[in-house]
C-alpha cells in the first residue's frame, strides 16, 4: 500500500480508486472539510449523500460536488440534518430508513468548536450535544443500513488531548464552562464512540475509526479571535517543543480532508478498526507532552462502554 502522510491530499489518497456503486453519507456538507470530502468521493463515482443544517447554503457551496459527481458517473444529494436537535436527527434517520438504500460508508464530519456556552434544543451543552450525541443517535439509528464491509469514520481532533469525557457532569451543570475543555470532551467522545461501535459491529464486518484531520482554517474556527488563535498555537508549540516535535503548521482543506477517505476506503478494516488515525496512518499512543498521537483514555474500552450507556440515558433511546 502506498504510504501517505501529513501533506497528502484527498486526490492523492484516492488516485486510481474507483468508488462506483458505493453509497456514502457525509455530515456537515455546507462548508470546509465536509464539502471537500464529498467532492473527492463523488469524483471517484460514489453516490454521496450530504447532510447539512442549512440546505440552501449547502446547495450553493456543493455545486462543484455535483459537477464532479456527474463527470464521474456518481451522484450527490442533500438531506436536512441539525445535530443540535434530536428531533431533526430522528427525522433525518427516519427519512434514510424509509428510503431503505444501504450505505457502504458513513463519515460523521460535522461539528462545532469552542463556542460560548450554550445548549442544544434538548438542553445538552452545545459541543457535547452536537459533536457527540447528535451523531450517536443518527449513526445508531441507521446502523442497519451499513453493508457488510462498511465503515464508520468519526471526525475527532487532537483537541481530545484537552480533556477526557466527564460522565458525571457532561453538560457543565456543576462546573464552570471552559470552551476548550468542552471541545476536548466532545472530541474524546468521538473516539470512544468509534471504539464501542467497532466492538459491537465488527463481527458483522462493519468497522469504525476516529480521525484527526489536522488544523485547517475553516468555518469551524469562527468562534476564535486572532488573540485566541495565537494563544492556542503558542500552547501547542510549547507542548510540541517539550515533546521534540516540529512547530504547529496549518494544512490545506484538501490535506485536512485526506485522512477521512483514507480510513473509509483505503486502509484495511483490521488496521483502523477501533483506532484513532491522523496524517493517513493509525496514531501511536501519546502519554507525554505533545498533542500528536492519541491519549490512552480515548481508546479505553471500559470508558467507551460507559459513555455508550450514559449517552443512551441522555437521549432516551437504547441501541
Q: What order do the helices and strands come in, and which of them pair?
A:
Layout: H1 10-13, E1 23-27, H2 32-42, E2 47-52, H3 55-61, H4 63-72, E3 75-80, H5 86-99, E4 103-108, H6 126-141, E5 146-155, H7 179-201, E6 207-212, H8 226-242, H9 253-256, H10 259-266, H11 269-272, E7 276-278, E8 281-282, H12 301-315
Parallel strand pairs: 1-2, 1-4, 2-3, 4-5, 5-6, 6-7
Antiparallel strand pairs: 7-8
Helix pairs in contact: 2-4, 5-6, 6-7, 7-12
Number of domains: 1
* Rg value: 18 Å
Largest sheet: 8 strands, mixed
Which CATH class is shown?
Alpha Beta
Query: In terms of per-residue confidence, which ranges show pLDDT below 50 for 5 or more consecutive residues?
Result: none
Q: Kindly report the average pLDDT value.
A: 93
Overall body shape:
globular
Helix content bin: 40-55%
N-C termini distance? 36 Å
Total helical elements = 12
Instruction: Kindly report the spatial arrangement of strands forming the biggest sheet.
Output: 3-2-1-4-5-6-7-8
Strand content: 5-15%
The CATH architecture comes to 3-Layer(aba) Sandwich
Reported by name, the CATH topology is Rossmann fold
Any overview of this molecule?
By secondary structure, the protein is an alpha/beta fold. The chain has one domain (10-313): NAD(P)-binding Rossmann-like Domain (Rossmann fold), CATH 3.40.50.720. It is built from 12 helices and 8 strands. Strand 4, helix 6 and strand 5 form a beta-alpha-beta unit. Helix 2 packs parallel to helix 4. The protein is globular and about 50 Å long. The mean pLDDT is 93.
Amino acid at each position: 500500500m502506498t504510504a501517505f502522510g501529513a501533506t497528502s491530499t484527498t486526490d492523492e489518497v484516492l488516485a486510481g480508486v474507483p468508488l462506483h456503486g458505493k453509497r456514502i453519507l457525509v455530515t456537515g456538507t455546507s462548508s470546509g472539510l465536509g464539502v471537500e470530502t464529498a467532492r473527492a468521493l463523488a469524483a471517484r463515482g460514489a453516490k454521496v449523500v450530504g447532510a447539512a443544517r442549512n440546505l440552501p447554503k449547502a446547495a450553493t457551496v456543493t455545486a462543484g460536488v455535483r459537477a464532479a459527481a456527474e463527470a464521474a458517473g456518481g451522484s450527490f444529494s442533500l438531506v436536512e440534518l441539525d445535530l443540535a436537535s434530536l428531533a431533526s436527527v430522528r427525522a433525518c434517520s427516519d427519512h434514510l430508513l424509509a428510503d431503505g438504500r444501504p450505505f457502504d460508508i458513513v463519515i460523521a464530519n460535522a461539528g462545532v468548536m469552542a463556542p460560548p456556552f450554550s445548549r442544544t434544543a434538548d438542553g445538552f451543552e452545545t459541543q457535547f450535544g452536537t459533536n457527540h450525541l447528535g451523531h450517536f443517535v443518527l449513526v445508531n439509528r441507521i446502523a442497519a443500513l451499513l453493508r457488510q464491509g462498511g465503515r464508520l469514520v468519526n471526525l475527532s481532533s487532537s483537541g481530545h488531548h484537552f480533556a477526557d469525557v466527564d460522565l458525571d457532569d457532561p453538560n457543565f451543570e456543576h462546573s464552570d464552562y471552559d470552551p476548550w475543555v468542552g471541545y476536548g470532551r466532545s472530541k474524546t467522545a468521538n473516539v470512544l464512540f468509534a471504539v464501542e461501535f467497532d466492538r459491537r459491529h465488527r463481527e458483522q464486518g462493519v468497522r469504525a475509526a476516529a480521525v484527526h484531520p489536522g488544523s485547517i482554517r475553516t468555518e469551524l474556527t469562527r468562534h476564535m479571535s486572532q488573540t485566541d488563535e495565537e494563544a492556542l498555537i503558542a500552547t501547542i508549540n510549547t507542548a510540541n517543543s517539550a515533546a521534540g516535535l516540529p512547530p504547529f503548521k496549518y494544512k490545506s482543506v484538501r490535506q485536512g480532508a485526506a485522512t477521512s477517505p483514507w480510513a473509509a476506503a483505503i486502509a484495511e478494516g483490521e488496521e483502523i478498526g477501533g483506532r484513532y488515525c491522523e496524517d493517513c496512518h493509525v496514531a501511536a499512543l501519546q502519554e507525554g507532552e505533545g498533542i500528536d498521537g492519541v491519549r490512552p483514555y480515548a481508546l479505553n474500552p471500559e470508558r467507551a462502554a460507559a459513555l455508550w450507556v450514559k449517552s443512551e440515558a441522555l437521549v432516551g433511546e437504547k441501541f
